[in-house]
């Protein structure tokens, strides 16, 4: 059967809105496992075959919102009538039927929140108690009475003993803290009825500011330390490079070994200094060679002069100057 036109998705739950029982439901904590296998749509939470008016599809969580699209059983005249009212905009509300455990109802920042629950059905309702109505059930599927819900919800609020009181806790400004939390926030002790929420919030905001200030200070120190380290590394490399360049000029090391010696100087300036000190300087090649004015050939006076020549220069000298060569070799 093709799906009928859908005006808009229905909002099953909005965790930012508190229901008339005095608590909100965390959307992320809603278990859809059972519901996804049987996404039944009831009329006003009446759990009977005759009150099944359709099913839900495209059920999804989007941040704080849980939504779904209706698929009405238009073969049923009652369902078709309700579908028509929805399409024409006369009905636009729904209500979840959920099962939950007492341990998942807790107080956070002065607000009662249901952190986990199981969705079993979603009903079309004419007038919800708020923007997102809810029907609470026992594990066996039996609806909970309103007084049961009030007593259960009130039981998680510190200092509340009278279940007949209105559950709206907007004006309840007390909170009970653990000893460790008291110490962490800097409280010496707490009254038997709890601390003022405003005092706790002030402490938390104060600590938050301290953390932010320390974070900024730490980041500044880290930047300064990095800048100093980079400057020190640059100075060390420069000093090593200058020493190696001088050693190359002096003939102590070949130019193709420059990078290796620079790295040695960066790793240990003392080792580089000691290593270069042990390498003797080589005599300048041109010191013992004189250039003749005639053909520009080098003048060789001693065997030392001859040995300083390249192999090709030695052959040329021997061929061009046989007499001088004999004198040198004796």
UniProtKB/TrEMBL annotation:
The alphabetical list of record keywords is: Hydrolase, Protease, Viral release from host cell
The terms under GO molecular function for this entry are: peptidase activity
Any Pfam family the entry gives: Peptidase_S78
An example of a Gene Ontology BP annotation on this entry? proteolysis
| Boundaries of every Prohead serine protease domain copy | 41-144
Q: What is this protein called?
A: Prohead serine protease domain-containing protein
């Amino acid at each position: 059967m093709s799906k009928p036109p859908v005006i808009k998705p229905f909002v099953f739950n909005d965790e930012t809105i508190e229901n008339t029982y005095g608590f909100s439901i965390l959307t992320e904590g809603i278990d859809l496992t059972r519901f996804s296998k049987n996404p039944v749509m009831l009329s006003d939470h009446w759990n009977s075959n005759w009150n099944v008016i359709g099913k839900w599809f495209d059920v999804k969580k989007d941040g704080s919102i849980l939504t779904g699209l209706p698929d009405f059983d238009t073969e049923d005249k009652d369902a078709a009538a309700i579908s028509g009212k929805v399409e024409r905009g006369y009905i636009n509300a729904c209500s979840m039927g959920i099962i939950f455990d007492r341990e998942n109802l807790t107080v956070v920042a002065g607000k009662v929140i249901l952190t986990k629950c199981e969705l079993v059905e979603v009903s079309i309702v004419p007038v919800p108690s708020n923007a997102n109505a809810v029907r609470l059930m026992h594990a066996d599927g039996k609806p909970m009475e309103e007084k049961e819900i009030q007593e259960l919800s009130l039981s998680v609020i510190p200092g509340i003993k009278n279940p007949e009181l209105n559950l709206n806790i907007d004006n309840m400004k007390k909170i009970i803290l653990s000893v460790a939390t008291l110490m962490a926030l800097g409280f010496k002790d707490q009254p038997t009825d709890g601390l003022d929420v405003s005092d706790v919030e002030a402490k938390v905001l104060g600590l938050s500011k301290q953390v932010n200030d320390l974070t900024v200070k730490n980041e500044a120190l880290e930047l300064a330390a990095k800048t100093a380290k980079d400057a020190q590394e640059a100075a060390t490399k420069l000093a090593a490079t200058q020493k190696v360049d001088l050693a190359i000029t002096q003939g102590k090391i070949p130019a193709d070994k420059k990078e290796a010696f620079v790295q040695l100087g960066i790793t240990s300036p003392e080792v580089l200094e000691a290593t270069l000190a042990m390498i003797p300087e080589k005599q300048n090649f041109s010191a013992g060679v004189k250039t003749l004015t005639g053909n520009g050939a080098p003048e060789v006076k001693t065997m030392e002069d001859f040995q300083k020549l390249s192999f090709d220069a030695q052959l040329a000298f021997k061929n061009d100057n046989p007499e001088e060569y004999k004198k040198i070799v004796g």
